[in-house]
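User: Good morning. I'm curious how pyridoxal-5'-phosphate would be positioned relative to this chain. Could you predict the structure with it bound?
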Amino acid sequence: MLNVEDVKRDFPVLKNRDLIYLDNAATTLTPEPVIQSLQEYYKKLGASVHRGIYQLANETTEEFERARNSIADYIGANSPREIVLTKNCTEGINVIAYSLERWQEKSGKVLVTEMDHHSNILPWRFIANGSKKFQLEYVEVTKEGRLDIEDYKRKLSPETVAVAFPGISNVLGTVNPIKEVTNLAHENDALVILDGAQWLPHRAFDLSEYGVDFLTFSAHKMLGPTGLGVLYGREELLRMMPPPFGGGEMVLNVTRQKVKLTDPPQKFEPGTPPIAQTIAFKAALDYLEKLEVSQIKDHVDNLTQRAVNKLSKIPYIDIYGPKEGEPRGGLVSFNLEGVHSHDLATALDSLDNIAIRAGLHCAQPLHEVLEINSSARVSFYVYNSNEDVDRFIAGVKEVKTILGGENGE
Ligand SMILES: Cc1ncc(COP(=O)(O)O)c(C=O)c1O
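Assistant: Good morning! Here's the predicted structure, ligand included:
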C-alpha cells in the first residue's frame, strides 16, 4: 500500500498551500525529484543536444537520450527509435494524423469515438474537412458509458484507414478493451492510434501486450514537467511516414533542391527539443516505478470507488460512466441537479480549498451525447488520501444544501 503521508511530503505545492487537489486528470503536481532534475539541467548541463561537439553538449545529449531509453523501457517499446518527443499528447496525435494523410495510399474512414477528447477528434476532423482522402466517423457510446463494440464492428471495414480511441475516457472513466479494438482493426488492415493520456498515469502499459501501432501521452499528467509529450510509433511505420513539420536537426543533407531526412525519431523532432523536460521526465518515471505502478493503480482505484460509492448516496446526483465496482480510470464526472458544475467547483474551492474540474473537459461531443451542458469531475492520484475524498464529499453535501434549490437537503 502507498504511504500517502510520505508521498505528500515529496510535493512542495502540498506543503506550501492548504489544498485538496482533485484535478489530476488535467495535470498532476510535481514531486521534488523532478524539480531537482530540472534545476540540475539548468545548473549543471544546459547545452543543446545533437549539435555541439564539445564535452558539455555530449553530456547533455547522453542524459537526454538516456531519458528517451527510459521512456521506451517504460512502455515496452522495441527501441528508443520508436519514441518521438513532442510538446504534449495533442501534438503527437496531430503529427500522426497529418503524416498519415500524406503517406497513406489507402483512402477511406478514420474511426474515432464519441468519448474522445478534442485532441483525438479535431486533427482528424480538420484533415477530413480539407481532403477527400479521409472521412471521419464516430463509434457510439452505450447508455452505460461503454464503447459500443457492435457499432464499432458495423462501422469497421477493409476501407477503414485508422482507428483512434482513448484507453480511458477523460470524462466517463471508462476503461476501453484495447486488445479487442486493436485486433478487430488489424483484421481490417486499419492502423491503431491509442490515446494513452489517461491510462499511462496509473496503469502499466506494455506494447507487446496490446500491439497498437501508435501511442500518445503527456508527461505532465504523470508527475513530469509540462511541455513534453510522447509519441510512440512502430519503427517500420515511422521510417516510411513523412514528417509534417520541417526544421533543424531532422535532416542529413539539404541543398537548395534536395532534402535527405534523418531516421526516426529525429526526423519528427525538428528544432530544439524539450531537453530539460525530457531529462526530468526520467526522474518522474523513476519516481513512479519506486512507488510501483501496480500499487498506484490499487490506490487510485480505491479512492475512485470510495468517491463513486459516497457520491451515489447523495440524492439528486447523476454520475456518468461505469457503475460502482466496475473498472474505472481514476476519475468521476457527475452533476448535482439544480447546481451548475461551475458553481459547484467555485463553491468547493472557496469553502475548503478543494480543486476540481468543471465544464466540458475538452469533450463536448460526449456531453452532447449525454445531453448535458457541463459536468463536474474529480480525479485522483498518488498524493490523495481517503480524507481528501471525504472532505470533498462533505463539501458537495454542503454546497447542495446552500445552492441545491428545491432538491437541496
Ligand atoms: C484523453 C485525453 N487525451 C488527450 C489529452 C490532451 O493532453 P494534452 O493537453 O497534454 O495534450 C487529454 C488531456 O486532458 C486527455 O484527457
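The chain has two domains: 4-30+292-407, 34-289. The mean pLDDT is 96.
Let me know if you'd like a different ligand tried.
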